[in-house]
Specification:
This protein is mainly β. The strands form 10 sheets. Strands 1-28-27-26-25 form a 5-stranded antiparallel β-sheet, with no helix packed on it. The chain has a 4-stranded antiparallel β-sheet with strand order 2-33-30-29, with no helix packed on it. The protein has a single domain (4-48, 85-537), classed as Neuraminidase, CATH 2.120.10.30. The chain has 3 helices and 33 strands. It has helices at residues 4-8, 17-24, 204-208; strands spanning 69-70, 75-84, 87-92, 98-102, 115-119, 125-129, 136-142, 145-150, 153-157, 163-167, 178-183, 189-193, 226-227, 233-236, 249-252, 267-268, 277-281, 289-293, 301-303, 309-313, 329-334, 345-346, 349-350, 381-383, 389-394, 406-410, 428-432, 439-445, 468-473, 479-484, 488-490, 498-500, 505-512.
């Protein structure tokens, strides 16, 4: 992503590169893909315009403050840990130690450390593992070791610091990665695997995301051989510089590398390491198999106390070669062998429905051939487009309340990349009653603590919660920990790009008022906070 002159220096027509670059910012840090409104790219004549510039100086992010956070009456908010760089996950072992992962990769910053902290019950902090393959999307303590979902593989960290890779070669080098981990009633490890592209076709938006130039052979892989409809999509080839008056164009078929047409018979080859799936594997890494398929980005995956498997799923974006508009995020009950609609359905509705027609470009058509669609599942609940549903957990204790309810985080929209609407979506934790299917906001920043609307800084320059990516209950069930990846600004200029802020990540702790305030709090890894903090120092 250099300057537009470098990329298109030989074109006689100006390409609408603003649209191309806009896609880069749209992956939501852990590639959550909260949705972006971007028409398909076209080489069209355009007059030169004077472009507004970004601010010369980014704002200062205020220190986090529990008083700036809202929770329902009767609940208390504290800070467990602060000053983190892009935290993604927290979990606990049986000895009371906490483990916190800093994911190590967000859009706008590819150089942050991917590492895991261990925090003792007294608040003593140490780095347990580093130089991992970012982003780390989840960690899970199970059976005496810490399981790690890192880019392209599932690993286990033993107490002696050794890392054993259980599953490698996962198709996680596109738009989305392997995600949340959960242990099933059968003792197996279950996890979500996101798709490579937005809607099944590699396009110029993936070049803008930064991975197409690095991994030009990446494409979506189904879990079994599927016959496609034979469509091919003509797009600009952003990896070719030419002196020709006409821009280089290529044809790309679904489930194929960029610039590759359909295979013989239009059959997409399947593999167990498939995209858009819930996968499961034995604890030793053997026996990998597909449990369910047809999801887009199942970021949250969790077995509930009712013995059922649930997942959150991010809907389509309006971008790329096959833009799909107004797609919803979904909460699913996951059933073995079931199909959840991707790439041809959103939340149980066919993408051929008029509601999904993009502002620019043709109405979407099915990618799969007639007869290839299994019965599509219907969602347990839906969420507005662009909220960015993330990881989930369940209350299992009357000490906290809402026993049996699901809680999930929403990372929030990426205006102006996700659209031109002025209102914000997400940036909260949602409580879902599985019996009534009613939901409500449980945790968010207070309205009077939001930053200025000018420059869309409400959830950037705030001491309250910002972009929430995970929920985890303490082993005793009496406290909820919410992972806040930190402040990320998107400058509202014609080429909006994300600007993440290091050391603004927070782990918030929520308990009932009147409950003992046990354990360390307000911990920081930064020396300016006084070095290692312990419970006795609070």
């Amino acid at each position: 992503m250099q300057t537009r002159a470098k990329l298109f220096v030989h074109f006689t027509h100006q390409v609408s590169i603003e649209r191309l670059i806009a896609a880069l910012a749209c992956a939501v840090f852990l590639n959550l893909s909260a949705g972006c409104t971007m028409p398909p790219l076209q080489a069209i004549p355009q007059p030169r315009q004077v472009m507004p510039s970004a601010a010369r100086e980014m704002p200062r992010i205020p220190d986090p403050d529990p008083m700036a956070a809202w929770a329902p009456p009767g609940y208390r908010v504290e800070i467990f840990m602060r000053d983190l760089t892009y935290p993604s996950s927290i979990d606990f072992d049986r000895d009371g130690n906490a483990y916190v992962a800093e994911c190590g990769y967000v859009y706008g910053d590819e150089s942050a450390p991917a590492r895991i902290w261990r925090i003792s019950p007294k608040g003593e902090m140490q780095i347990l593992a580093d130089q991992l393959n970012g982003p780390i999307t989840d960690i899970l303590w199970h059976d005496g070791r810490l399981l790690i979902s890192q880019k392209g593989k599932i690993s286990a960290l033993a107490n002696d610091g050794r890392i054993q890779d259980l599953v490698t070669g996962l198709p996680s080098f596109g738009d989305h990665e392997n995600n949340q981990l959960t242990i099933g009633p059968d003792g197996k490890i279950y996890f979500g695997q996101g798709v490579v592209t937005n809607s099944g076709v590699v396009g110029t938006d993936n070049f803008a995301f930064g991975w197409l130039g690095k991994y030009p052979q990446e494409h979506d892989v189904p879990p079994k051989n599927l016959k496609t409809s034979g469509q091919e999509f003509i797009t600009l080839d952003p990896m070719v510089l030419t002196s020709s008056k006409e821009p280089p164009l290529v044809r790309t078929a679904p489930f194929m590398p960029f610039g590759t047409g359909g295979s013989k018979g239009n059959v997409a080859q399947g593999n167990v390491k498939a995209n858009g799936t819930i996968l499961r594997v034995n604890p030793d890494g053997s026996g990998l198999e597909v449990y369910a398929w047809g999801l887009r980005n199942p970021f949250g995956v969790k077995w509930g106390p009712d013995g059922k498997l649930y997942a959150t799923d991010n809907g389509f974006d309006e971008r790329g070669s096959r833009p799909i508009a107004h797609a919803l995020d979904a909460i699913w009950e996951i059933k073995q062998g079931a199909w959840y609609g991707w790439p041809d359905y959103n939340a149980g509705v066919a993408v051929t429905d008029a509601r999904f027609r993009p502002q620019h470009g043709p109405a979407p058509k099915f990618l799969l051939s007639d007869g290839e669609h299994p019965r599509v599942e219907q969602p347990l609940a839906t969420r507005p487009n662009h909220v960015g549903v993330t990881k989930i957990d369940f209350s299992t204790s009357d000490q906290f309340g809402f026993n049996g309810n699901m809680f999930f985080a929403e990372v929030g929209d990426m205006n102006p990349i996700t659209g031109n609407h002025q209102e914000h979506f997400g940036f909260d934790v949602i409580r879902l009653d599985l019996k009534t299917r009613q939901s409500e906001v449980f945790f968010r920043a207070r309205e009077n603590a939001l930053g200025p609307k000018e420059g869309r800084m409400e959830y950037v320059v705030t001491p309250g919660p910002k972009r929430l990516v995970g929920v985890r209950f303490a082993p005793a069930g009496d406290a909820m920990y919410v992972v806040d990846i930190g402040a990320i600004a998107v400058v509202p200029v014609p080429t909006p790009m994300p600007h993440p802020f290091v050391n603004t990540g927070v782990i918030w702790k929520i308990t009932k008022e009147g409950a003992p305030s046990n354990g360390p709090r307000n911990l920081s890894p930064l020396p300016r906070r006084g070095g290692v903090a312990t419970a006795s120092q609070q």
